[in-house]
Amino acid sequence: MRTADGWQDYQLLDATGGFRLERWGDVLLQRPDPQVIWQTPRRHAAWDDVHALYHRSAKGGGAWEKHKPFPEKWTVRYKDLSFIVSPTGFKHTGLFPEQAANWEVYARCIRAAKSPPKVLNLFGYTGGATLACAAAGAAVAHVDASRGMVAWARENAAASGLADAPVRWLVDDCAKFAAREERRQSRYDGIVMDPPSYGRGPAGEVWKLEEAIWPLLVQTAALLSETPLFFALNSYTTGLAPGVGGYMLQQLLVPKYGGTVYSDEIGLPVAAGGGVLPCGSTALWLADGTFL
After folding, report:
1. Under DSSP, is residue 137 helix (H, G, I), strand (E, B) or coil?
2. How far is CA 222 from CA 133, 160, 233, 249, 268, in A?
3. Please, what's the b/e burial string for 258-269 (b: 16 or more CB within 10 A of its CB; e: otherwise)?
4. Which of 214, 211, 221 has its CA nearest to residue 182?
5. pTM, whole model, 2 decimals?
6. What is the CB neighbour count within 10 angstroms for residue 55?
7. Which residues pair with 139 in a beta bridge?
8. pLDDT digit string, tens, across residues 212-238
9. Could you say which DSSP state residue 48 is in?
């Protein structure tokens, strides 16, 4: 498992009893996590000092219970990148810190390229991968179906000093965008896909990962240039093995481009007691076969 261990403004302090205890800058949050099925003792004193605790509702969704005042929005940094954090009504904060493990791979590939590459980031959310790629020197097409998430990503770009970077910010259904790009014969040197397990498009289109991912992978792989650098598929679907994504990329890309496919979990180190919390899986195809 690869860990995102380069953070200074974020820390997973402890995890037990279905919850994470996290430090986001100076703010302490307690959030539910379906992966935390163990019932070990709480080993960190900050459990009793959180700013807010998220409660799930039996009817779906949930709400934050605030224990201490904290800003509606604040900024955390990862190396030269800045991200605006804001707890939302659906538990998330606008950032998946474990993805920093993948940002490092994308950036290495981009910096090693002979000329500035073009990268497509589908399901781009609030722009973590987009900013990592842009900061490394790529021109990026950032696509997400949520207008609010694309606006948040642009705020993050501005906070990171990348407001003028060559990024196209696109509010669109990812599958429809990929189909139009194929008709336009657009090509990309790197592709990142970070699809949800379940979701809806701008016009109410239903997305289920297990049913939709293979057709979209086939469609998206057709957008690669003649000499691509990387292709990444991230998944948060519980029970879907990392090797499933790896197998699909192996079948789609290796016969045409060669290269190497890696598939593994990514996670966050737990400060109290050690260990790593699994946070999802990634399948990576790399043209040069060099992981890091």
Report:
1. coil
2. 21, 32, 15, 12, 33
3. ebebbbbbbbbe
4. 221
5. 0.94
6. 12
7. 118
8. 899 999 999 999 999 999 999 999 876
9. G
